[in-house]
Amino acid sequence: MKSASILEAVVAMITDGFTAAKAFRHHSGLPIQYVAARTGIGVALLIVIESGSSASDDEISAIATALELPRVVTAG
């Protein structure tokens, strides 16, 4: 099943220290510049968020939308 392999790959990245948002972005093959353009969040701030810093609810929602994920997946 394709979704299981996606989940396994993302979980492996999270186990290796990636945040959920960064793991899904990397797995999707999306450049951070693309997510920045889709969210209106600057690249520098996305890097900080992907490093594990807190993000506002609006930022989390924007990232989830850009990655086409449910919001709850990117929290944490």
From TrEMBL:
GO terms for molecular function: DNA binding. It comes from the Bacteria. This is Uncharacterized protein. It comes from Aureimonas glaciei.
